[in-house]
Design a protein that fits this description.
The protein has helices spanning about 5-10, 55-60, 90-110, 115-150, 155-175, 185-215, 230-250, 255-260, 275-330, 335-365; strands spanning about 15-25, 25-35. It has about 375 residues and is mainly alpha-helical. It has a two-stranded antiparallel ribbon with strand order 1-2. Strand 1 (about 15-25) and strand 2 form a beta hairpin. Helix 6 (about 185-215) packs antiparallel against helix 9 (about 275-330) and helix 9 (about 275-330) crosses helix 10. The longest helix has about 55 residues, at about 275-330. The two termini are about 15 Å apart. Residues about 1-20 and about 25-85 have low confidence and may be disordered.
Amino acid sequence: MLKGEKQMGDKEEGSSFNRRITMVNNRPHIYIVSSSDKGEPSGEPARLKMGRGAADSLKEQTPPAVSFFGHHIGKLLASDKPEAEEFGPVDKELESSLEAVRRKLQMIRAPYAYGESRISQEEMKHQRFIEQRNRAQEALFEDIIRRHGEFVTGLGSENLWSLHDLMVMEANHEAVCSQEESVHELVECNLLTFLRRKASEQAWQRLEGFLIQFQIPFPMSSSMEDPAEPLRNEKVREERKKSAQNEFLKMPAQQLAELILGNVPNWVYSYPQKDAYLWQLTVLQGVTAGLAANLLMKYLSIWEEHSTEILDRIQQEFMGRINEIRQRGESATDLPEVLSVSKELQRISGEEIPNRIWKHIFSTLDAS
């Protein structure tokens, strides 16, 4: 259980959810958030704190942002505001003028009362859609929690809220990775993304194990089934599971974060019917997203604990090779050779080093 779960438990006192509506391309996207969340996000990308202990970093993560390995980037300092000057009669004249304008607006708007009532009706209709949509999301989240209990994953509501926060931080970190210019920071970004994808792969394998253990058929639309051809149905079901797996593994971190809570922002006004094929599939995806976030937290904890040892091994294995490639690049005389050297270095930083670190992490996790 995460150290940050106490705070997440506080979120669920009283009402479990608050609704937040965000307009994206003039379309409302509705999010259910913890009832104790106050204020709106600043919009600034958060960075994932990488000090000792991933659970501690969850608990302590507050602005200002920090980088992947705990190097501070900066702080937002609130300066004291100077006292306002008194303007004497100017403010009275301004108040009087505004009042005159307000009276004029009331006179002009009177003929449009009918139009305003129409707008009010549309707003009420929109609000009803929002309320129905959010009730459906609450019900789906409850089904996700229920599945976690049936599968005995050890993840309850408090855990899922904490893991959602972890995955949101990871998603925000990935979002700014493309803006990094430092090779060191790019390697850090590559490692984090690599571990998140490995966590998704391992989580899906666990889901398949649960489905076999509890004899639960993978969801499939009834329109794809033919009662007269059971063998064909099983083949179609297996193909559908493979397709769903590929879709899940390609999901960005932000989408995985929302799935942990059963939130699908693209379903703007309505969710599928409860217990329908798409509902059941989303429940399983939500369970798997929670498992992936939990695995990612474990991977990061192992990395933080053993990073010095692992990096020593990485240096022994790659330093000579990197120096050799560098010398080849410095002595290159044509463009194709320079591009070849650059591509090889990118592969080492983006694939080989993260994969080697992953093997150390996985072997440690497997031995524990």
